[in-house]
Amino acid sequence: MATVHKSPVLTLRCRDWSETSQVVQLLARDVGRVRCLAKGSKRGRNPFGGPLDRWTLGEAVFSLRDPNRLAVLMELYETERFDGLRRRLRAFFGASLVTELILALVPEVERQPAVFDLSVAALRLLAGVEPEACRAVSFAFAWRLLALLGYGPRMGRCAACGRPLEAGSPVDFSAVQGGVVCGRCQPQRGARRLSARAAEAVAFLATADWDEIKRVRLSDATASQIRAVLSDRLLGLAGRELSAVKYV
User: Fold this and answer.
1) Which CATH superfamily does the domain covering 84-247 fall into?
2) 159-168: which pairs have CB atoms within 8 A and are 24 or more residues apart?
3) CA distances for 93 relative to 27, 88, 89, 137, angstroms
4) Among 48, 76, 140, 192, which is disulfide-ready with 205 (CB 3.0 to 4.6 Å)?
């Protein structure tokens, strides 16, 4: 028997199903990630107010019979549209990373209210901050999502043996361990070198308040190192390269 759910939702991706309908990827606060068939969403009159679009916040009602099959979207009332994500390229790239990470790492039909709240906060910031801040916000979302899902990052102590590491020095980040490793463990774990500044930036982005994050301006050199270790980590977790990372 199908179960009807009502929940705040974030629209992540929309694709045409037919001439009149769409398949929509939603992140529902009370249900988790769910794929829905929006029947008739492209018709002139429908219960969704028009064709559905990504990166909107709303209240949805949907019917779910089998987690392995499409749910049926019955209603969706839009409450917020993150228009800034469509007007600025850096914000667009950041929102694309948010979307790709959720679709790759967050399990379907598994309630994740903290992931929902984090995603909404990140998209809201990306839509409104100065373009130069988008990179820091995007990386901050990525590291925080990994932490919520139990994947780190572990900084300050060796992720393999737990030995404290000297602050203010370059470190080696192991994608396998999901954190920094000491010199003794590095040969066995395979790691990429991070400067002291890049390591401090990762730790800061993973934990600081959003008001502080939006004031951060990462240099190209620091961002390049963060991007490299993040890409390594995501490749191991998702089993494939995530294309949006390279554009942040």
Assistant:
1) Recombination protein O, C-terminal domain (1.20.1440.120)
2) 160/185, 160/188, 160/189, 161/185, 168/196, 168/200
3) 19, 9, 6, 11
4) 140
Q: What are 42's strand-pairing partners? A: none
The CB-side HSE value for 240 (13 A sphere, CA atoms) comes to 8
Q: Do the beta carbons of residue 3 and residue 63 sit within 8 Å?
A: yes
Phi, psi of 214 (to 5 degrees): -70, -10
CATH number of 3-81: 2.40.50.140
Q: Which residues contact 190 (CB under 8 A, 6 or more apart)?
A: 174, 175, 176
| Whole-angstrom distance, CA of residue 80 vs CA of residue 55 | 9
Order of strands across the sheet that contains 179-181? 179-181, 171-174, 192-194
- CATH 1.20.1440.120 segments of the chain: 84-247
List, by residue range, all CATH 2.40.50.140 domains of the chain.
3-81
Q: How many other β-carbons are positioned within 10 Å of the β-carbon of residue 164?
A: 9
In sequence order, what DSSP letters do the residues of 32-62 get, joined into one string?
Answer: EEEEEEETTTTSSS-TTSSS--SSEEEEEEE
Q: Is the peptide bond before 153 cis (omega within 30 degrees of 0)?
A: yes
The pTM of the whole model exceeds 0.70: yes
Q: Are 22 and 40 in contact (CB under 8 A)?
A: no
Q: Quick: pLDDT tens for 45-93.
A: 777 777 889 999 999 999 998 878 899 999 999 999 999 999 999 999 9
Give helix then strand counts, H and E, for the chain: 8, 8
